[in-house]
Amino acid sequence: MRASAIAAMMPFLDVVYANPSGSHRFARLARKSVDEARDLIASIVGCKPGEVVFTGCGTESDNAAIVGVVRRRGGVAVCPAAEHHAVLHCVEHLEGRVVDVDENGAVSLAALRAALDDSVGSVSVMAVNNETGVVTDMSAVSDVVRRHAPNAVLHTDAVQAACWIDLRELWPLVDSMAISAHKFGGPKGVGALIVREGVTFEPIVLGGGQERDRRSGTHNVAGIVAMAEALRATDAERAHETVRIAMLRDRLTAGLLAIPGVRRTVPDSVSVPGVVHVCISDVESESLLYLLDEAEVCASAASACASGAMEPSHVLRAMGVGREWSAGALRLSMGHTTTEADVDRTLRVVTDAVERIRSASARLRRA
Ligand code: PLP
After folding, report:
1. Nearest one of 134, 337, 349 to 252, comparing CA atoms
2. Do 87 and 126 meet the contact criterion of CB atoms below 8 Å apart?
3. 11-16: long-range contacts (C-beta < 8 A, 24 or more apart)?
4. Is any ligand 1 atom within 6 A of the Cβ of residue 58?
């Protein structure tokens, strides 16, 4: 977590531990802080404060925006095949339409166009893919959706976008947007759904009617305040960090590509700088991650949520990456704490691990 986000949340774990829905002085203080966090997030997104709905995570925000919208307004749900499961499983649950992606994992506009008509009630397209870092042209997506699915609510999963894309530019293109604090230096277990005034949805968490009846549950005041601070810092540093991390990305990519049999899964030109995804021939991700972990390099093969099970990722499958390459998938991600020394050490560790795995397999083949 960002140190400033930790500092921001501390008073709410201690002296201002009140429930903001109460009426006493500490409750009012907590309420004021939630309102200030809402105002701050709204100013960073460029939306109205009333359009910010605090949730428990990015997954919940996506669920509310897709399942909640379809339950309230009806219609067919649509999303591309490379979405995070927080979106994909909602659309599958609603028996919606899953559309093809291109070889980089970005939605195919032709396939999206073909899936749209008047019956579509919800379209969800992620702004940045969590596995490959590929960036969606949301302006083109918005254009196609507005033209060919006039009844659809357009949602974007911006969980991976907040670090790299100015949310003020994204927001006018969509009707709703999911963010999650732990992707930009805030705590885990808190997120927001930004939803345009007038776009109604069936709440998926029912209870005390907090968040103007859109999301019940006692506010996670500490988390909300810390999320707002983390987003403020992320927004303030974005331009500088994007350049700094792009330089680290170039160094990391060059070093990885110097290892024989390594290929970059998507070109740097279509991806955010913070994610470097490569596929390595003659190496199983499982063994590679084991050796990396031993050397304290924390990486993943697919999305972190799926990395317990070494099935080829649904994203790589949707992109048409064959088993011979997807078996050796490696995702390295960088953020505000990453340094050049981290990159150099990672390169040494990965190079050494790949060599060890390949010579062990060669020995086994000879035996
Ligand atoms: N969407 C994307 C693109 C993500 O990367 C993630 C988390 O990895 C989520 C949704 C889910 O967010 P959360 O972990 O806050 O539920």
Report:
1. 349
2. yes
3. 12/221, 12/222, 12/225, 13/222, 16/221
4. yes
pLDDT of residue 367: 84
Q: Report the DSSP beta bridge partners of residue 189.
A: none
Q: Which residues contact 72 (CB under 8 A, 6 or more apart)?
A: 200, 201, 202
**N-terminal to C-terminal alpha carbon distance within the chain:** 48
Q: Which two tokens stand for residue 83?
A: 């979405």
Q: How far is CA 117 from CA 79, 122, 323, in A?
A: 14, 11, 35
| Mutation choice for ligand 1 from 83, 182, 183, CB with most ligand atoms inside 8 A | 183
What's the 304 CA to ligand 1 centre distance in angstroms? 10
Compute the average pLDDT of residues 334-353: 97
pTM over 0.85: yes
Residue 327, Cα to own-chain centre: how many angstroms?
Answer: 23
Cα dihedral 53, 55, 60, 63 in deg (nearest 10)? -20
Torsion angles phi and psi, residue 320, rounded to 5? 85, 20
pLDDT tens for 321-343 read 998 999 999 999 999 999 999 99
